[in-house]
Specification:
Helix content: 40-55%
Shape: globular
CATH topology: Rossmann fold
CATH architecture: 3-Layer(aba) Sandwich
Strand order of the largest sheet: 3-2-1-4-5
CATH superfamily: 5'-nuclease
Number of domains: 1
Radius of gyration: 14 Å
CATH class: Alpha Beta
Structural class: alpha/beta
Distance between the termini: 22 Å
């Protein structure tokens, strides 16, 4: 949870798709890693819910990635400590990949930018952007 109201008001609200977290650990010099660093310095405010946290932990622990457990816990704990828990209701919006609905619905509920590497999985909206596009404007 952010430390004070001023931080919450000045930080840009975001919902981060799991693929961005994966990419941030694979390439520490890429745009996804820059986004994670922005969380650390409280320039962006990540929103999450229980379903998204479960996916973060599950996917980041896949053997094919071979991330160290401390990397996964540090990343997820940073989001927990600096983010906002917000619950959502399921929308009826048509989705290319139903498993991405949780991110879409949360970004709508939080009035936040959704950052994803799989932009084709989501409806075309100006608030759904890639990590590179986010870094170009923020």
């Amino acid at each position: 949870m952010p430390e004070n109201q001023t931080e919450m008001q000045s930080a840009h609200k975001v919902v981060i798709d799991t693929n961005v977290l994966v990419s941030s650990l694979i390439n520490v010099n890429g745009h996804p890693a820059d986004i994670i660093r922005l969380i650390g310095i409280r320039r962006i405010l990540p929103y999450y819910n229980a379903e998204i946290l479960d996916e973060y932990r599950r996917v980041l622990c896949y053997p094919k990635f071979a991330f160290a457990s401390y990397q996964v816990e540090s990343l997820v704990n940073g989001i927990l400590e600096r983010g906002i828990l917000e619950e959502t209701t399921k929308s009826t919006t048509k989705m290319a990949d139903e498993s991405d609905r949780k991110f879409y619905d949360l970004h709508k509920a939080a009035n936040a930018t959704l950052i994803t590497g799989n932009i084709k999985h989501f409806p075309k909206e100006h608030t759904i952007i890639t990590p590179a596009a986010f870094r170009n404007i923020f």
